[in-house]
Write a structure and sequence with these properties.
56% helix, Glutathione S-transferase Yfyf (Class Pi), Chain A, domain 2, 4 strands, alpha+beta
Length: 236
């Protein structure tokens, strides 16, 4: 299978969670918009294709299938790429964890765009400071503490006792948070030894290490989900 991944150019965004799975598995795929531009995405969103109609990227074309939503894409890819346990309970649990990762990713986005996604950050700076403070002090400890407990229950190394797409997504979550909230994450990191160790192991996987060192891995920036605005981080 040669997969086609559709996501906006210039940012990692939610598409990066899918890229990491494809890269880790050594799958054959093309990052369509990076070759043809964002117009290739617009054609799909306008319904100029057969199959399911996505609301927004990321979406994946696999043969005649069109699959949208990050967690849904990973649920589809997991068995074929060997990135999810064979049993039904393990697959359901992996999907549950990925949906929870999607929840915190949405809250990270809303920390810098709490009023409206179409407004510039400068138009909602005061509201963003309040929202980011709650994220740092309440929501991040709750979510990351949950995943730390998941790792402990999974034996300490993996959420599902074996490598899966959830490991890759937790790596991306931690990398994004380290970029967006470096001071807060240094403070919180003391209580997250398993997540820190997981991130290090994922980064050292041969295909992931090669990907991270390649131009295919775009840098975090202030146009994506994980943005570094110093005023939204822990006070100096």
């Amino acid at each position: 299978m040669r997969y086609e991944l559709y996501y906006w150019t210039g940012i990692q965004g939610r598409g990066e969670f899918v890229r990491l799975a494809l890269e880790d598995a050594g799958a054959s795929y093309v990052d369509v918009a990076r070759q043809k531009g964002d117009g290739a995405i617009a054609a799909f969103l306008d319904g100029e294709h057969k199959g399911a109609l996505p609301f927004a990227p990321p979406f994946l074309k696999a043969g005649r299938l069109v699959i949208a939503q990050t967690a849904n894409i990973l649920q589809y890819l997991g068995p074929g790429l060997g990135l999810v346990p064979d049993g039904e309970s393990g697959r359901i649990y992996a999907h549950q964890l990925e949906l929870t990762i999607s929840d915190i990713v949405a809250e990270v986005h809303d920390s810098h765009h709490p009023v409206a996604g179409r407004l510039y950050y400068a138009d909602q700076r005061a509201e963003a400071k309040r929202r980011a403070a709650d994220l740092r002090e309440t929501r991040l400890p709750e979510f990351l503490g949950y995943f730390e407990n998941v790792l402990q229950r999974g034996g300490g190394r993996h959420p599902l006792r074996e490598h899966s797409y959830v490991d890759l997504s937790l790596f991306q979550l931690m990398a994004g948070l380290d970029y967006a909230f470096p001071r807060a994450m240094r403070r919180l990191g003391r209580d997250l030894p398993r997540l820190r160790a997981l991130g290090k192991r994922v980064a050292e996987r041969p295909r992931i290490a090669a990907y991270l060192d390649s131009p295919r891995r775009q840098a975090f920036n202030e146009n994506g989900i994980f943005r570094h605005y110093p005023e939204l981080d822990d006070p100096l």
